[in-house]
Amino acid sequence: MAYHVKVIPPSGRARIHEASCKFCRDGQGMENQDKGTGPTYWQPPYPVPGFPTIAEAKRYVLSLGSRYIDTQGSVHTA
Q: How many domains, in total, are found in the chain?
């Protein structure tokens, strides 16, 4: 299973998603969901495969610095 991280700089949030979840879609995000709230992005970006392990995804979130938090505290799987 692969993982992607949704990074939302305006709010200082980063959330780990399973690549298969309906919000992530392998790093593509949801269709027609640009809310115009600023520069948000998925990491790794589509079409790059996601992080192969949850540990690597968590390391990426930590690498963003203390400004970013994983607001879920767990993996988003919806």
A: 1
Q: Is 42 inside any structural domain? A: yes
- Confirm whether 66 is domain-assigned: yes
Query: How many angstroms separate the CA atoms of 25 and 38, rounded?
Result: 20
Q: What is the 3-state secondary structure (H, E, C) of the chain?
A: CCEEEEEEHHHCEEEEEECCCCCCCCCCCCCCCCCCCCCCEEECCCCCCCECCHHHHHHHHHHCCCCCEECCCCCECC
The predicted model scores a pTM of 0.80
pLDDT (tens digit per residue) in 37-75: 567 888 998 888 999 999 999 999 989 888 887 655 555
